[in-house]
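Researcher: Dear colleague, please comment on this protein.
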Amino acid sequence: MGLSLGVAGAAKALPAPRLGWVQLQRPADPYDPKAKADQAIAKAQTRAKAAGKRLLIDMGGNWCADCIVLTAVMNLPQAKAFIDQHFEVVTVDVGQFDKNLQVPARFKVQLKAVPCVVVLDAQGGVVNKGQELALGSAASLSPQAVLDQLAAWAS
């Protein structure tokens, strides 16, 4: 399976901060198995709209190495500042592909792998349609490549 970064036909992507050499730190479990996903998304969507940001829905599981790497990259100070400026982020625990499956279904995403990232604009439209799994191999990408992909969805 090839990886295609970027959004076809999208406006010029915002430049991502240059990370240089970084050491990723394993984050605490990013996916709360007890969170009410639909309520969390609704609240995050309200905050995103009020702040003029995009909503980034990160679906995954605490067992997933790629999900942990994605979170670790997003937690890097240089990346976090950029992400906080452009996105409201909400995480959704999909367990072993047996929890909160109404979330990918709502956005017409076939959940085949995690992390699965859906980015919504202010009107609730999916910005990264067809690329929801672009970060599914985050552990094999450089932190810069992960951040560049997120930046492509920020503009």
Summary: Residues 37-51 form the longest helix (15 residues).
